[in-house]
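Lab notebook, bench 4. Still working through the backlog of constructs that have no structural model yet. Next entry is a single chain of 145 residues. Request: give me the structure tokens for it.
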Amino acid sequence: HCIPFTATASAIILLNAAFVGAEASHNFNVAIAGEQVNAFWGNVENVFSVWFTLELGLRLWAEKITFFTGPEWKMNALDCLLVFISVVGAVVNPAGSYSKATIARILRLFRFVRIFRVVRVMKAFHSLRLLAFSIMESMGALFWC
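Model written out:
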């Protein structure tokens, strides 16, 4: 990867993490007040989804088969999963508002998982990556609950 591309992708991942936190806070406050969620949050989330889809496509194009077989294949698989979840969420719920409680809970869980993108930025923190991979590996067991 070229350094400017990696730096830009890392900055956008951190910006997305900050956005997820701000959105969660806003949604909590809106829920308490009994108000309607502003469409702004869903629109910004869709912009992030488009960016991450483009970024993933560019990385797939640049790395070709090593994307799936290279040393970063686990992080690449996580990125594929997160982009897939983002795209499905944008198609199922384009405005970011939820109508059915069960679907809402599932989509919120998947949106929370997006935070794991930050782990990709923090390659230097081996223990944090180990913790994130442990959580990712246990997600299958959580779905059985």
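Notes after review: The CA atoms of residues 75 and 120 lie 7 Å apart. Helices lie at 3-33, 39-63, 66-69, 73-92, 101-113, 117-121, 126-143. Flag for follow-up if needed.
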